[in-house]
Write a structure and sequence with these properties.
Distance between the termini: 97 Å
Radius of gyration: 37 Å
Order of helices and strands: HHHHHHHEEEEEEEEHEEHHH
GO molecular function, one term: copper ion binding
Catalytic activity: 4 Fe(II)-[cytochrome c] + O2 + 8 H(+)(in) = 4 Fe(III)-[cytochrome c] + 2 H2O + 4 H(+)(out)
Helix content: 55-70%
Organism: Sphingobacterium mizutaii
EC number: 7.1.1.9
Cofactor: Cu cation
Length: 450
C-alpha cells in the first residue's frame, strides 16, 4: 500500500514539473527574442553614428560658409535616413511583455499547488479512515456533525454577505429617480426586494439549521412523514397570493405611467428618437410644434432619416446632437427603429421601452432634477444622465449612447435655437431639383425655414 501511494505522489509531482517547463519555455524564448532584437537595433544604429562622425570633419574642411551649411544639412539628412529604418522597425514589432508569461506561469503553478494541497489532505483523510476501519473503530456517522457544523458556519457567512451586499453595494448602485413616475417604480422595486429578502433569509436559516439539528446520529431513526394536505395548501396558496399581489401592483403602476390623458399628450414637449445600428438620431419639432412626415422609401445618403419634405411642417424640424429637456415639464418621446429591435433606456429616469421597426412606441415622463442638481447630489461635477440601448444589437452595441441634459426652461430655449435643422442647404437643392423648381423658389424655401 505504501509503495503504491509513493508512486502516485511521484507521478503527480512529475506532472507538475512537466507543466512548469511547458509554461516556462515561452517566457524564456520571448526573453531571448527580445535580447536578439535589442542587439540588432543597436547594430543598425552604430553605422549611423559613425557616418555622422565621419561627416563632421568633411564639413569643417569646407572653405565657404555656404558649403558648410549645405554639407551639414546633407549629413543630417543622411543620418536621419540611416536611423529611421531601425526606429520604424522597432515600432512596428509589437511583442507581449515576458512578464505576462511569468505572471501566467506563477498563477498556474499557484493553482496547481493548491490542488496538490487539497489532494494531499484528501489522501490523509482517506488513510485516516482506512486506519480506523482496520482497527475496528470506524463510525460512519461521525462525519455528520462536522458536515452539519460546516453548513452552519456557511449560513453565518452567507447572512453576513447578504447584509454587506445591501449596506455597501446597494448604496453604490442606488440613487433616487430623477422623474415623477420614478418614485412609483422605486416603491414597487423596494417592496419586491423586501419580500424576496425575507423569503431568502428564512429559507436559508431553516435549510442550514435543520441540517444541524436533524443530522443522522446513532440510535436515532428518521420520522417518515408521507403526506400533509394542510402544509401543501399553505406553501401553495401563500406564494400564489403574494405573487398575484406583486403582479397586480406592477400592472397598475405601469398603467398609471403609460395611460396619459389626451390633453397631457398634446401639451407635452414632443421628441422623436430613431435607433439604428449603431447610433441614435434625435428630432425636435420646429416652431410649428409638429413633426414632418417620414417615409423609409425617401431615404437617401443626404436624407438618411427619410423625411418627406413635401410636407412643409418638416422644413423647420431640428436635429439634436444630444437630448436636452426642460425640468418639471412633461416630455413625450416617440421611439422608433430603422433596422432591428433596440431599447430606449435611461436608468436615472426609470425609463425603458423597446424601439421596434415598423411601429412607434411612446413614453411620457416629467423630469424633476436638473443635471447640475444631480451633480451636486452625486458630488461629481462630470456626472451626466445617459440614454443607452438595452438590447444587444450587434458588435458596436456599446456605442449606442446619447447624452441627456435636464436644464431650465430658458436654457432649453437657448440651446434649441442654436441647433441645426434637418433640411440643410444640400437637401434644399436636392428637393428643389426633384421638384423642378427654380432658384427663386429655392430661396423662398430657405427663407420660410429661417
Amino acid at each position: 500500500m505504501k509503495f503504491k501511494l509513493h508512486n502516485r505522489f511521484k507521478s503527480l509531482f512529475g506532472g507538475l514539473l512537466a507543466i512548469n517547463l511547458l509554461f516556462a519555455a515561452p517566457a524564456m524564448a520571448s526573453i531571448q527574442e527580445q535580447a536578439a532584437d535589442t542587439a540588432k537595433v543597436e547594430q543598425a544604429a552604430t553605422p549611423a553614428v559613425t557616418a555622422d562622425s565621419a561627416a563632421a570633419p568633411a564639413d569643417s574642411a569646407a572653405a565657404a560658409p555656404a558649403a558648410t551649411d549645405s554639407a551639414s544639412v546633407s549629413a543630417s539628412s543622411t543620418s536621419s535616413s540611416t536611423v529611421t529604418p531601425a526606429a520604424s522597425t522597432t515600432k512596428e514589432e509589437k511583442k507581449i511583455d515576458p512578464q505576462v508569461y511569468k505572471n501566467l506561469t506563477y498563477y498556474i503553478l499557484l493553482f496547481l499547488v493548491l490542488c496538490t494541497v487539497v489532494a494531499v489532505i484528501g489522501k490523509v483523510q482517506s488513510i485516516y479512515v482506512l486506519t480506523k476501519k482496520v482497527n475496528g473503530k470506524y463510525n460512519p456517522l461521525a462525519n455528520n456533525t462536522l458536515q452539519a457544523a460546516l453548513l452552519f458556519v456557511f449560513l453565518i457567512g452567507f447572512l453576513g454577505f447578504v447584509y454587506y451586499g445591501y449596506a455597501v453595494w446597494g448604496s453604490w448602485s442606488w440613487r433616487p429617480a430623477a422623474t415623477e413616475h420614478g418614485k412609483d417604480i422605486d416603491r414597487m422595486f423596494i417592496i419586491t426586494t423586501v419580500i424576496i429578502t425575507i423569503v431568502l433569509v428564512l429559507v436559508h436559516i431553516l435549510l442550514l439549521t435543520f441540517t444541524f439539528i436533524y443530522r443522522m446520529r446513532a440510535k436515532r431513526k428518521a420520522y417518515f412523514y408521507p403526506h400533509n394536505d394542510a402544509i401543501e395548501r399553505l406553501w401553495t396558496i401563500v406564494p400564489a397570493v403574494v405573487l398575484t399581489i406583486l403582479v397586480l401592483f406592477g400592472f397598475f403602476t405601469w398603467r398609471s405611467i403609460t395611460n396619459i390623458p389626451e390633453d397631457l399628450k398634446k401639451s407635452a414637449l414632443q421628441i422623436e428618437v430613431l435607433g439604428e445600428q449603431f447610433m441614435w438620431t434625435v428630432r425636435y419639432p420646429g416652431a410649428d410644434g409638429e413633426f414632418g412626415k417620414r417615409n423609409y422609401k425617401l431615404t437617401t445618403p443626404l436624407n438618411s432619416y427619410g423625411i418627406d419634405y413635401n410636407d412643409k411642417t418638416a422644413w423647420d424640424d431640428v436635429k439634436g446632437d444630444e437630448i436636452v429637456i426642460p425640468v418639471n415639464k412633461p416630455v413625450r418621446f416617440h421611439i422608433m427603429s430603422k433596422d432591428i429591435i433596440h431599447s430606449f433606456y435611461i436608468p436615472d429616469f426609470r425609463v425603458q421601452i423597446n424601439a421596434v421597426p415598423g411601429m412607434t412606441n411612446y413614453f411620457q415622463f416629467t423630469p424633476t432634477i436638473t443635471t447640475d442638481e444631480m451633480r451636486d447630489k452625486m458630488n461629481d461635477p462630470q456626472y451626466n444622465f445617459v440614454m443607452l440601448c438595452a438590447k444587444i444589437c450587434g458588435e458596436s452595441h456599446y456605442n449606442m449612447q446619447k447624452n441627456v441634459r435636464v436644464v431650465t426652461e430658458a436654457e432649453y430655449k437657448e440651446w434649441l435655437s442654436k441647433q441645426a435643422k434637418f433640411f440643410t442647404e444640400d437637401l434644399q437643392k436636392e428637393f428643389a431639383q426633384a421638384e423642378g423648381e427654380t432658384t427663386e423658389k429655392n430661396d423662398r424655401i430657405a427663407a420660410s425655414i429661417n
